[in-house]
Amino acid sequence: MKDYLECPHCGRPVRVYRNPFPTVDIIIEMPAGPPGSGREEGAVVLIRRRNPPHGWALPGGFVDYGESLEAAAVREAAEETSMKVRLVGQLGAYSDPERDPRHHTITVVFVARGEGRPRAADDAADIGVFTRETLPEDIAFDHAKILRDYFERWLPKD
Amino acid sequence: MKDYLECPHCGRPVRVYRNPFPTVDIIIEMPAGPPGSGREEGAVVLIRRRNPPHGWALPGGFVDYGESLEAAAVREAAEETSMKVRLVGQLGAYSDPERDPRHHTITVVFVARGEGRPRAADDAADIGVFTRETLPEDIAFDHAKILRDYFERWLPKD
């Protein structure tokens, strides 16, 4: 798509091509807890976003030019959760132009195993570990759909 | 990543953010042929590229801003092969910064069933239907790796 920027020097329009923005999101799997802990089954890490759109979300962010999706996923997980993660696979790519209210992003979602204790950092105002039964109500973007796909399609065959 | 364009009016540099370019590629599955046809097993459509990098490649191209990956895959398949395709799933996303010698692209690869007869169009100088045994030698980008993943990981469980 053609788009225009304003030249900061002469103020006239400069034509640029606009593409959807590539992003990654990471489903970080935490070890199950002991019986009675409420964490007997799969639990995942979500962050509460500091910036709009507000709500809980998977850790994730933009892919840099020259950076692979895998490198971006490991980097973003570390930046937002302070965890070192080991990627185990791709859940899939999500690209509905309306999935982010700010602009058109395409995300590739990775499943990963987390090491260490999650600590909120960077864009994350808070952090939590949730099972399917304890997921928060206010989930940003299309991350509720992504989590449903994970719990229904990925976890059973894992 | 920050990058600079030259303003076409005043010639001075205009800062732009540069992201990897999102693309799609499509593995179009053709019906198997009769015994003795050499097409008894899975066969896929490849195009011979009109533009550099030359060689055979999966049909595919850039995702437009505001367009889903699925819509881009159906559109690109139609533009380059003249076929109507029905998507059956995602093989995965490939993002090695070196996968395209021209610039950093991230591709999401779809598997699809094709209807109609493949006819080369748009960027395609020629078109062919190949099985794993008859794949051409000169395959552009990382499409040989993608096809290996398809034949080794996707097809057996299909």
Describe this structure in words.
Two copies of one chain form a homodimer. Chain A contains two helices and nine strands. With 158 residues, chain A is α+β, with helices and mostly antiparallel strands. The interface between A and B is medium-sized, with 34 and 34 residues.
Helix count from the secondary structure assignment of chain A: 2
Task: Measure the end-to-end span of chain A.
Answer: 40 Å
The helix content of chain A is 10-25%
Name the beta content range of chain A. Answer: 35-45%
Quick structural overview:
The first copy, chain A, has 158 residues and is α+β, with helices and mostly antiparallel strands. Chain A has two helices and nine strands.
Write the layout of secondary structure elements.
The structure is a homodimer of 158-residue chains.
Chain A: E1 2-6, E2 13-17, E3 21-30, E4 43-49, E5 56-57, E6 60-62, H1 69-81, E7 84-94, E8 105-115, E9 124-131, H2 143-154
